[in-house]
Every structure is written in structure tokens, then in C-alpha cells.
Design a protein that fits this description.
This protein is an alpha/beta fold and about 260 residues long. It has 2 domains: about 1-40, no CATH class; about 45-255, Rossmann fold, CATH 3.40.50.150. Helix content is about 40%, strand content about 15%. The chain contains 9 helices and 7 strands. A 7-stranded mixed sheet has the order 3-2-1-4-5-6-7, sandwiched between helices. Helix 7 (about 160-170) packs parallel to helix 8 (about 185-195).
């Protein structure tokens, strides 16, 4: 592929094709491909990982686990687990717990607004059914890479979040959360997660709101604002990427 001067704005097609071409040329070099992520990841996608790292860094010295609502392909789930292995290597009480039905949106509530094909907002939208087996294989590979083989670092809870979350919370009264990642997109599962898990977030813990203030997914914002009412926390945003849409740090009886 011939080189050409860069455009004034990112040229997605050219960048994707060029990086894929370069990666395919080295695809048989196992050691290179599995260790050289920074060579092939796009700047914009690296921004997402930086946001997740910043969130984890804020809680790395706190007790508790990471809880993620909405696993999808498992990118953030595994990234948090790998960060935990590096930054909390001697803390085997902490783990990453992911909730997902792996079947997509079960339904849309009135507060989620109308279906929107442009962002796959519909019953069954954003299904990760085709990625579930790959995710399990990736978790298995991670399990062989973690330092303590006797205790799992990742736990998956499958099913409708509005049902599995209250059940899990009731069955695990000792659960404490240092990072709560809300990536359900929709009103009902987001509200259920806040009702049952936010009281378990330790002081200084971080709550990530993946679609907060996203016009296409109004249900998440409405669930957050309904839950906190007049005690809304100050929601901030990392500068590296559009997601998460916001985050806040829990401070005592109120958050800021």
C-alpha cells in the first residue's frame, strides 16, 4: 500500500487497513504480536484503555472488588483483571465480577426512548452471544497468566441483570466494591445496579457511567438522576475518550 500525506482529519479506512496490513505481515511472529499491542492499537482506542486505567488507579489502594454491569466482549473486564494482577497482586480477596445476559437488551423501558437502529438500540441489540465462547477462552488464558492459580480473579454472573443483581447482593452480604462500572446503557438494569450495589461501594470508590449524557441512551442518565435525586454527585469525565460518559468518586453520605 502506497504511503500518502495524512488528511486533515483521521482517515479511518486508511488507518484500519494499514494497521491490519502491518499486523498480518507479522501474524506468525507469536512473541511479537502478543507483546506489541502499542504498535497496532489506534490512538482513539488507546484513549479508552487510558480512561479505564485512570479509574483503576484512583481505587488501587482501596479494599473491595470491581463490579461490571454489561460485559459484552469482555475488553474492560479483562483489562481491569490484568490491572488488578499488577497493582493488587498480593490482595487475593479482590476480584472482577461481571454481569451480562450475553443475549443483548432484553427490552426497552419508556425512559430509554425509542428504538434506534443506528446504535443497535432494540430488543436483542448489542448481543454478545457470538463472543461468549471467545471470552471464556480469553479468561482461561488469563487464568494461566495470573500469579495465584488457586483462586480465580474473574467471576461471571449470567442472566437478566435486574434479576441476578439483587440475588447476588443478597447472597454476598460481605461484598464491598471499590469500582462500579455501569455499562448497561438502559434504565432498568442501571437503576437495579445502583439500588443494590451502590450502598456497597466503599468511601473513595469510583462509579463509571459508560453512557451518561449520551442522547441515544437517555435511560442510563435518568436512572442515575432518579436514584440520587437532590443529592446528585458531581460527575466528571476523563479527557481521553468519549466513554465512559462520566464518573464520580463516592464521598461519605454524598458523592463528589
Amino acid at each position: 500500500m502506497a504511503l500518502r500525506p495524512p488528511p486533515r482529519c483521521p482517515d479511518d479506512a486508511y488507518v484500519n487497513d494499514r494497521l491490519w496490513e502491518l499486523l498480518r505481515a507479522r501474524i506468525d511472529d507469536q512473541a511479537h504480536v502478543t507483546s506489541a499491542l502499542s504498535l497496532y492499537i489506534r490512538r482513539i482506542h488507546l484513549g479508552k484503555l487510558l480512561s479505564l486505567y485512570e479509574a483503576f488507579r484512583l481505587v488501587s489502594e482501596l479494599p473491595g472488588s470491581v463490579v461490571e454491569l454489561g460485559v459484552f466482549k469482555g475488553e474492560s473486564l479483562l483489562f481491569f483483571a490484568k490491572l488488578m494482577e499488577m497493582l493488587n497482586v498480593n490482595d487475593r480477596s479482590s476480584k472482577v465480577i461481571g454481569f451480562d445476559n450475553f443475549a443483548g437488551f432484553p427490552s426497552l423501558h419508556a425512559k430509554d426512548g425509542a428504538a434506534d437502529a443506528r446504535v443497535d438500540k432494540r430488543a436483542g441489540g448489542w448481543s454478545s452471544a457470538d463472543h461468549r465462547e471467545e471470552l471464556l477462552a480469553l479468561i482461561n488464558a488469563f487464568d494461566h497468566d495470573r500469579l495465584a492459580g488457586h483462586k480465580a480473579r474473574i467471576e461471571l454472573v449470567e442472566g437478566d441483570i435486574t434479576q441476578t443483581v439483587p440475588k447476588y447482593a443478597a447472597e454476598h452480604p460481605g461484598l464491598r466494591i471499590k469500582l462500579l462500572n455501569l455499562d448497561c446503557d438502559l434504565y432498568e438494569p442501571t437503576l437495579a445496579a445502583l439500588q443494590h450495589f451502590y450502598p456497597r461501594v466503599v468511601e473513595g470508590g469510583v462509579v463509571l457511567l459508560d453512557e451518561y449524557a449520551f442522547e441515544q441512551f437517555p435511560g442510563e442518565s435518568q436512572a442515575v438522576e432518579e436514584y440520587f435525586g437532590g443529592a446528585m454527585p458531581i460527575i466528571r469525565k476523563f479527557p481521553f475518550y468519549s466513554n465512559p460518559g462520566g464518573y464520580f468518586v463516592k464521598r461519605g453520605t454524598a458523592a463528589s
